[in-house]
TrEMBL record:
Species of provenance: mine drainage metagenome
Keywords: 4Fe-4S, Iron, Iron-sulfur, Metal-binding
Alphabetized PROSITE patterns for the sequence: 4FE4S_FER_1, 4FE4S_FER_2
The keyword Iron-sulfur appears for this protein: yes
Alphabetical list of PANTHER family matching this protein: ADENYLYLSULFATE REDUCTASE, BETA SUBUNIT, BLR5484 PROTEIN
Name of the protein in question: Electron transport complex subunit RsxB
Pfam families noted in UniProt: Fer4, Fer4_6, Fer4_9
One MF annotation (Gene Ontology) recorded for this entry: metal ion binding
Cell inner membrane as UniProt keyword: no
InterPro entries: 4Fe4S_Fe-S-bd (IPR017896), 4Fe4S_Fe_S_CS (IPR017900), Fe-S_Ferredoxin (IPR050572)
Span of domain 4Fe-4S ferredoxin-type: 190-219, 339-368, 551-580, 582-611
Length: 687
């Protein structure tokens, strides 16, 4: 870190930049400051590129130019770019933005996170174009020389097939498309009598049809057809026309899909890569076609999520408990698979909402990992504080639409307030309660999550739920019930107004020294312990909204028979039994509030109680229920419990098989004694 060098520029004197103060804040690092590093002072950058030590340039606008210079100089070090101009130097509070600049620059000298596993995708260009004949055939003709196209007609009342058979043409309804780039599967029902794969396009059927029900797309208008079957006779030698086709289902595999339907056939909020659905707009169709041409070859994407099956609380013994990740995923990459889930890494686009909502940490966002984000937060906030900054407000945004909005705000508006520090992530949906509370523990006074109308609704709902839980906890601790906030930033003026009208944040707390753990629940415990230690209030417990990852379990002791089905179902060992007596124990620290125990209980005796217990009792197992053991009537051996036996006798007493006294009495014996009793009964001995 100390070998990192900085090249900063005030952009022709338009951006406020105190190089001396920044040099002091970035102790141990070399800092040069210029006025036009991208133009007349470019030789200063070229001189820095002669050395292999890491180089951070305080400009993102000219990143392409500086990258070209680095390539020409065979620069072997790490080259990074930090935006200082729009995020700080052009702000209406630019004179006070020095601490923010120091924070952004300090964060930039951290080593790159360890690379994640790659998911390989291969596309040979086999493209299925789906849509009405006039549009689908038109685009097939344009793309046939560059892609291996096939056409699936959804409507053929107009248009006609091409004069040359350069590519396959199908027709069908009930179309289903699934898969991802390089591995799409399509199925459809061929309910039109003419099989376009067998049709020779000789037009004999068109000439033979008395109702003119067949067009030059070789499809029969069944509303006009009067079943003369003259077309069948005309096509007898070829056999392409069959009004009673026995197997109408057709399937195919493709690398790419261009869906020209009015509404996409795939209805997920985020469509799979390689599946483009521009609708009927000609310009959108043109742009989609251009994108298709770039999707041929071999590609890699990060494996965004790690799944640890042993921690998963989705199901046990066919009973479903937690299904939050399945519900929230915007791409359909996560599906239920028995008692576990299945994650399709090729469908996943790295939104991270699954990891945010997962109560156990079975799903972990890996691009980057929470510890890497935590280190960035810790270093950034420490540098801001050491440079004299106060009341830091973190603004989480994505690296696409979010970054662009903030850059435009800095260019044409008042920019960002000096205390608002942008923090870029792959997708804000990946920012869960562990990171938010961790940021507050490191010294942030407020955390804002910026979304927009293009964000999947399921992610916005999840983020709001996380924020509600966090603010409820902070309010109970006497800190700030508005320290966490989710907002949409579709309107630039509204965004500027919101940022410049922010109230003061949470009171400053001593910064935490811990690093965020890889384990989600451990990270939450550390953050909460730090906040609790420095909070004005010390409540014993905090009631939380439904869906919280912590909570108690209430039990109706009159219903519970201590069958212990809940113990076998609990994925987190929050519920345990004892070998020496019929007793149900509960360790609240481990409870995920997944609901598996509630759904498993045959007596419906359990209920979830979302809360956070802030006393040492959360780490001690307590007895939820216990009962006297039931003893065998014959040998006196303990088996089962008295409530269980009473419930069983009550339910079976009306059954014909247990109408006699000996039968009911036998139920009250242990397994060995039942066998002995049955043998004695068969020999006529008294039981």
């Amino acid at each position: 870190m100390s070998d990192t060098r900085y090249a900063l520029c005030n952009c022709n004197g338009t951006a406020v930049l105190d190089a001396g103060a920044l040099q002091k804040s970035l102790s141990g690092s070399s800092v040069i400051a210029g006025q036009a590093l991208c133009r007349r002072e470019v030789d200063r950058v070229q001189a820095l590129l002669a050395d292999a030590d890491p180089l951070v340039i305080g400009c993102t606008q000219e990143a392409p130019l500086f990258s070209e210079l680095a390539e020409a100089a065979s620069f072997g070090g790490e080259l990074r770019f930090v935006n200082l101009r729009e995020f700080a130097g052009w702000s209406a509070e630019a004179a006070e933005a020095g601490p923010k600049m120091a924070a952004l620059l300090a964060q930039a000298r951290l080593p790159s996170p360890a690379p994640v596993r790659a998911v390989e995708l291969q596309s040979a260009g086999a493209t299925l174009i789906i849509g009405p004949a006039e549009a689908a055939i038109d685009w097939a003709e344009r793309l046939k020389d560059r892609l291996e196209v096939s056409v699936l007609l959804t409507r053929a009342s107009t248009g006609e097939l091409p004069l040359r058979r350069d590519y396959p043409v199908f027709s069908g309804t009930e179309i289903v498309v699934s898969g991802h780039l390089g591995a799409f599967e399509a199925s459809w029902r061929q309910d039109n009598p003419i099989d376009l794969e067998r049709c020779t396009r000789c037009n004999a059927c068109i000439r033979a049809c008395p109702e003119r029900a067949i067009n030059y797309a070789y499809q029969i208008d069944l509303d006009k057809c009067r079943s003369h079957r003259a077309c069948v006779v005309a096509c007898a030698d070829v056999g392409a026309i069959d009004f009673a086709r026995a197997e109408p289902k057709r399937t195919g595999r493709f690398d790419l899909v261009l869906d020209l339907s009015v509404a996409p056939l795939i209805r997920t909020p985020h469509l799979p890569q390689g599946y483009l659905a521009p609708g009927r707009d000609p310009l959108a169709q043109f742009e989609a076609a251009q994108l298709l041409l770039g999707l041929v070859g071999e590609f890699e994407q990060p494996q965004y999520v790690d799944y640890r099956e042993k921690l998963c609380a989705h199901g046990r013994n066919g009973i479903v408990g937690c299904h939050r990740c399945v519900d929230v995923c915007s791409t359909g990459a996560i599906i239920a698979a028995g008692d576990r889930i299945s994650v399709d890494a090729a469908l996943c686009q790295g939104c991270g909402g699954c990891a945010t909502t997962c109560p156990s940490g079975a799903l972990r966002h890996a691009y980057p990992r929470p510890p890497d984000l935590g280190l960035r937060l810790k270093v950034l906030l420490a540098a801001y504080r050491e440079a004299g900054g106060r009341d830091p407000c973190l603004l989480f945004h994505d690296g696409a639409r979010g970054r662009e909005r903030l850059l435009r705000l800095g260019r044409s508006g008042r920019g960002l307030p000096s205390r608002v520090i942008p923090f870029e992530v792959h997708d804000v949906a990946a920012i869960g309660l562990d990171l938010l509370l961790g940021a507050l523990a490191y010294g942030a006074s407020r955390c804002l999550l910026m979304t927009d109308s293009e964000e999947a609704e399921s992610y916005v709902v999840t983020l709001r739920a996380q924020v509600d839980i966090g603010n409820t906890l902070l309010a109970a601790l006497g800190l700030d019930d508005r320290a966490l906030e989710v907002f949409a930033a579709d309107d630039a003026q509204a965004l500027e107004k919101l940022l410049w009208s922010l109230p003061p944040g949470m009171p400053s707390l001593p910064p935490a020294s811990f690093n965020l753990s890889e384990d989600k629940r451990s990270a939450l415990e550390f953050a909460l312990a730090h906040l609790q230690a420095h909070a004005p209030n010390r409540p014993a417990e905090v009631a939380l909204p439904a869906g919280s990852p912590w909570g108690d379990l209430s039990i109706d002791k009159h219903k519970c028979t201590l069958c212990l089905a809940c113990v076998g179902a609990c994925p987190a060992s929050a519920l345990t039994d004892t070998p020496d007596a019929p007793r149900l124990r509960f360790l609240e620290r481990n409870c995920l509030q997944c609901g598996l125990c509630v759904n498993t209980c045959p007596e419906q005796a359990l209920a979830l109680v979302p809360r956070l217990l802030l006393t040492d009792g959360v780490r001690r197992a307590r007895v939820l229920h216990e009962a006297e053991p039931f003893h065998c009537l014959r040998c006196g051996k303990a088996f089962g419990t008295k409530p269980m036996m009473e419930a069983m006798l009550s339910r079976l007493s009306g059954h014909s098989m247990f109408a006699t006294g000996p039968s009911l009495r036998r139920l009250q014996m242990c397994a060995d004694c039942r066998v002995i009793d049955m043998m004695e009964s068969e020999k006529g001995q008294p039981t």
